[in-house]
Amino acid sequence: MAVSTNFAPPFKLIVPYFILGIFALVVSSFLLFGIDVENLQHLDVSTLALAHIFLLGFVMMIIFGAMAQLVPVVLEVGHFAVDLYYIIYPLLFIGTAMMGFGFYAHPTLLAFGGVVVLIAFSIFLFETFMTILKVKRYNFTIVSVIVSTVMLLIGIIFGLVMALGYSGIIDIDATHYLHAHIFFVLYGYVGVSVMGMSLVLLSMFWLSHGYSLKHIKRALWLIILACGTVLLELFVSLPFLLTLAYGLLLLALSSYLMQAYLLYKTRARLEKDIYLYSILMAYASLALSLLFGVASIIVANEQLILSGMWIWLFGYITFMITGHLYKIVPFLVWYQKFSPFIGKKKVPMLADMVPKRAAFMQFIFMACGVLLGSVAIMLQHNILFDAAVSFFVFGALFMLKNLLYMIRFEG
Amino acid sequence: MYTKDEIFKAVSTVNDPEVGFNLVEMGLIYDASCNEANEAIVTMTLSTRACPLHQMILQWVEEAVLRELPQMQKVTIDLVWEPIWNVTMASDEVKKKLGGL
Questions:
Q1: Are A389 and A33 in contact, with CB atoms under 8 Å apart?
Q2: Helix H segments across A271-381?
Q3: A272 to chain B nearest CA, in Å?
Q4: Is B20 helix (H, G, I), strand (E, B) or coil?
């Protein structure tokens, strides 16, 4: 019998991940003002700093927090040592801040920040692998957790090599490892984690039933193949392999999109709430970024790639995360504050804990920011991009406000 | 000795906090019986194996039956995954509110 609640980590352990994560989203959104979209293809230090604060501070922080909560649910076993999560978030936060400053001002800090992040990741990897060893019954989501964890391990090794190269500690061409680092961490870890977790969460919140898993299984294999191709390119230096890897990636994400459509089609819950809007926005962004990706291969236009990446990160990944926070955070707060009173007094429903108007404001501001931003990147128009960022900043601030509202909810 | 209907009525006091319906109208309670020693068995499922409230819902069902039926001595929950729950098992009222009708 699957029992998950007994293994649920305490509320105080998970909440810092979400608060720090959204705080990093707010910081990242302000840092977007420093981006020069006319020269975005030359990854300057401010772009690199922003990318790392966004990905490590926001995306990774939230995924790790969600994993702390969801691993027992998905794997149907308790954590190997859940208390290790108390060490991960401070290390990840400090390491990310050091890397951010490192890119901007002191390259030496970059390597030290990288090492601190590496320690945080190593603890996470150790805890996750040890927890996986307890699993008795394997399913697709568990396999996806294993694959993504291995991808992260390989990706951070490339990242550390690059950090050591940037800071001058070892003599290598750091850019040589860039694609491998991006593929393994961004698509291999973040992409696969989101795929695996969304399969569980979407079917749970939408009450989807009776769907086939063939599309998502194909997507997982294609991502593994894409990452393997990038790894091969690193050793044989044949540029067409990179194009092949991007092609495989586009196929993988398209296949995943079809799976998401199946979940949507077979859902029993048809109510229109902020969760539905956020998830639809996320998948619309994924579809748009795929279109841009295909178009960029056909017409060889760099702005299409950059705009597609923008939509992938700030549309797909960001809305996927913010949408799920409107479900996960109320659950955690409800479980902590109200579940002991079941059968004794009236308790709120989870939906009552979401600030509906403010959530809608967050959605509108962020969606405007993402769409306007993609146009600005296409046109290489800095003023338009600043306007887009202004929208996005308001959206991020609303998200922070909404998160705090849900955490403080008293009924 | 309590009837199946009485046990179902007791379980119907338990609401799923996510969807807002009680477990009986959701169609999650498959069967219930009670012997002469006032020991009940409730056969039920959950909407998903990954339900994070898994253990807690089982506890609520047990507590509700003991609370609502004062002579009840013992409640055993038989959690099953076959047949797999789907929305057609829910009441028409639930289907209508979820948007399925």
A1: yes
A2: 274-299, 302-310, 318-337, 356-379
A3: 10
A4: coil
Dihedral over alpha carbons A252, A254, A260, A265 (to 10 degrees): -140
C-alpha to C-alpha distances, A81 to A69, A121, A145, nearest whole angstrom = 13, 15, 17
**3-state SS assignment for residue B15:** strand
Rounded to a whole number of angstroms, the distance from the CA of B91 to the nearest CA of chain A is: 13
**Alpha-carbon distance B89 to nearest alpha carbon in chain A (angstroms):** 11
Which residue has tokens 């499922």? Answer: B45
pLDDT digits (tens, 9 = 90+) for A317-360: 999 999 999 999 998 898 888 888 877 788 888 889 999 999 99
Neighbouring CB atoms inside 10 A of A329's CB total 23
Structure tokens at B80: 């099953």
Q: Is the ipTM of this complex over 0.85?
A: no
Cβ distance B100 to A270 less than 8 Å, yes or no, reads yes
Tokens of A234: 């690193």
Q: Do B48 and A76 touch (CB under 8 A)?
A: no
Closest Cβ opposite residue A204 in set B48, B67, B99: B48
CATH number of B4-93: 3.30.300.130
Is B86 an interface residue toward A (CB < 8 Å)? yes
Distances (CA, A) of A275 to A254, A327, A393, B50: 22, 7, 20, 19
Q: Does A74 reach chain B within 8 Å, measured CB to CB?
A: yes
Q: Where are the domains of chain B?
A: 4-93
| CB-based contact A18:A403 (threshold 8 Å) | yes
Tens-place pLDDT, residues A44-81: 888 889 999 999 999 999 999 998 988 887 787 888 99
Count of beta carbons in the 10 Å neighbourhood of residue A93: 22
Give me the DSSP letters along A63-85: HHHHHHHHHHHHHSS--S-GGGH
Distance of alpha carbon B82 from alpha carbon B79, whole angstroms: 9
CB of B54 within 8 Å of a chain A CB? The answer is yes
Q: A170: part of which helix (H) or strand (E)?
A: none
CB spacing of A8 vs B52 below 8 angstroms: yes
Please indicate if any CB of chain A lies within 8 Å of the CB of B101.
Answer: no
